[in-house]
Task: structure prediction
Amino acid sequence: MSPSIRFALLAIALQPFTNAAPASLQPASFIALQASVVRVEATRERGGMSLGTGVTVAPSVIVTNCHVMRDAATVRISAGGRLWDVTEQHADVNHDVCFLHVPDWRGPVVVLGDRVALELGQPVAAIGFTGGIGMSLKFGNVRALHILDGARIIESDTAFTSGASGGGLFDSAGSLVGLLTFRSRGLNGSYYALPAGWIRDGLPTDQQWDAVHPLRDAVPFWQRDVATLPYFMRAPPLYAEGRFDELIQLTERWSAGDPVDPEPLRVRGDALRKMDRNDSAIVSYTEALQIAPNDTRAWYGLALAYAGLGDFVASKRAESTVASLDAALATRLHGEVEGLHHPSDRSDSH
Result:
């Protein structure tokens, strides 16, 4: 490895980390916020009902996901054992952000979070209706921030179910930072929230309200065909299927479109590491960390890449940084590094 890369890594390692010891979130801190969260009941044109969640973001205004409203002929919200009629709607179907006008609703308005304040590893809380029935409160941490349309989609390990679509993702101060929207499945499933900036920018004026009607052709960005999905959604299947050459080509197009996005650099490092090109992987991880020094996943991959080269001193330094950012992730990383450091003895004897 070149001296310049080693120097860059040292410089990154010496930078302070603002969320080195994330404060644990206390359930009592979020009780008051539940008064701002409602259940959304959308009666379908052809019968049946879609259930979701909504959050009060302005006087008599609820925000939810458009996919909750896709087949809705009429919509009501429920809270505290009562029902309120939704009289108008305003839809941003591409971003999956729908606003509901509920004139008689007097629920407290939440504070919208700052569009740039969210950080990797930051603790967050999700409030929504589990299965559309009972309200739940779940805690987790921000795992990644995916740049899209001038904002950042929030990926976390804060679990929620389909009935929680349109619910709120809150920071430790109780500010709404995201709208619970979709999730990936599998053992290490991730949960995605739309940025509060899209809510703030999309709040309708009096002239923008429409009558409640089905959004039959509403296909949000995350439900489109593979060729038109955002890069951050196209990458995981290629990685899971071991199509690493294609993944590297994807990251090159990704980086060309947004040179200041650290994610394609980190993803490229992951692909190179899986191809046993650990020296090149270290370069990619380092470039990602120069843009985003708190990128836990890049530090995670860097630790494994160094371990793959047999440099367990450098691997330990990267592992220590992961521990300072995300203790749970560091535990998993330690097991992987130990597996490379002390591989199980193999025997052909029977």
The longest strand covers residues 134-148.
